[in-house]
Structure prediction request, 649 residues.
Amino acid sequence: MFIRAPKDFWSGLMFLSFAGVALLAANGYSMGRGGRMGPAYFPTLLGCVLALLGLILVVRSFAIHGEAIGQIQLRPLVVLTACVILFGLTIQPLGLVIALTLTTFAAAFSGRETRVREAALLSCGLTLIAVTIFVFALRLPLPIWPSL
Amino acid sequence: MFFDVFSNIGLGLTVAASLQNLAYCSIGALLGTLVGVLPGIGPVTTVAMLLPISFTLEPTSALIMMAGIYYGAQYGGSTTAILINIPGEPSSVVTSLDGHQMARQGRAGPALGIAAIGSFFAGCVATFVIAFGAPPLAKLALQFGPAEYFSLMLCGLVAAIVLARGSVIKAIAMVVLGLLFGLAGSDVNSGIRRFTFGIQGLADGIEFVALSMAIYGVSEVAVNLEKKEEEVATVGVVGSLLPTMAELKYCTPSILRGTVLGSILGVLPGGGALLAAFAAYTLEKKVAKAPRNFGHGDIRGVAAPESANNAGAQTSFIPMLTLGIPSNPTMALMIGALMVHGITPGPRVMTDRPDLFWGVVASMWIGNLMLVVLNLPMVGIWVKLLRLPYRMMFPMIVGFCCIGAYTINTNITDIWVMAFFTVFGYFCLKLDCEPAPLILGFILGPMMEENLRRALLISRGDPGVFLQSPISIAFLVAAAGLLLIVAAPAIRAKREEALAE
Prediction:
């Protein structure tokens, strides 16, 4: 491979793709003129700057040597993101008690070592505390139980 | 003017000393110490988790509590840095250099004591710096037009870039990306929905709480879980907490230097406690006599950075409260909290809500006193808490982040936003892209666009408007100067050295 600075290369690519999305989306809005900036004016400006920066990073990564990307372990990231999505899917139909117990229990499986009994106890305890604080003490508008 | 300040502080004290606010102040300070002690959870995450709680409180109480968390965390971080060589907060990394050496020599007590005394002294001075410095700054800011504001924000963002670790280009790109994320949602002027991609829940933009909790909460957990859990070795004997008179005298110049340096650096955007502590230690090694002792348990190596980080933590409130410009992510969160209460941080806060402004300032002084009185005797309890393994902590962080992101608007889209930014944040951390500039850009994005629009509207599209007022020119020159400085290779090497640890 010719890539000498993988961290720079991939972050440059990331910035380029975000810039691409921004410029494409801003294309649909009116640009306006300097004196009367349209909704596309500032985003287009930013998108161009971001694209330029991304390009510099990518080009430079072929020339200058840089650090390798550290080891990426997908398990914690995937499990944690799944937990967040799980919470989103369950909070409205099933209520806080079930959603939070499930989420915190599942979250425990993102670690290196998981002790199932400990995780189960922990998630129940956390839910109890959370319901006490958020619903009873602070009266946040959260559904506690499943809505039928 | 002089008299005004004292009557204002008096007003602040009556607000801060109300039973309710005293309670929130102590809750904040204790909670701050707790998260300061625990590695892997910092003030940003905690303030983010507490945002939904703050909406049910009065804005003054909410801000008092959040401020307590911020400066309380500086105390807690130093405790673990000294006792077990694990800095609970990045700003106490330097404290561990000499502090832990002292602990190994059986002088843990005086190290903790001098850290507390230095912090308390610095906190008192910083409170007065805010009381005297903020009103003139706010008065000046009231004369700012859109052009001056735009240049000021530009300067602030550049400063954040300069102080970010790692590559300058990446930091600039993160700021720009943050600005772009900040623009999502309905455009104020045209009513057009930008970057919502047809998603109804994004009409009000990307929720800041969801974004910051994803990056500072969940992503960070993911990164932390990849590391091996470290065994905690505690130093048993703490001994007498009070340093001797001789030690106190020995440290006084260091405390003074640290306080002054910290107060100045805290005001800079992107500054705050972390930079202050590093700079103070470096200065101390250059200025103090017998510098060879540093790193081998020199008490001055604890006194100076501890004073500096506390002073810096407090003066970083100045740009937030007077200009509405956050100097670090925690401040950005507090701006978010104030905005939910319908208060736009800026020069008007001081005149429109003097109770809020002076109440928060006075509460910092009370909070610092509480930290000294409450914390030192409780050192043993804090250390025991360190035995709590991370695997029991992170499910709580994830759970609280989910609750926080959802309750902020009871909008399910915010959860999906959080999931997206968890993945984004993880890769940013892996690719050495600092999230702090992104967060600052995100907060400033809409304000910058609005001020740019207004400035150009007044000048009918002539960009020369930014070069017409001396204030605006000064900010632009400062921004350009800062950029040149980081670009210069000689200084770049030094900066990397200073920010390396």
Q: What stands out?
A: The first strand of chain A starts at residue 32 and ends at 33. Residues 74-107 of chain A form the longest helix (34 residues).
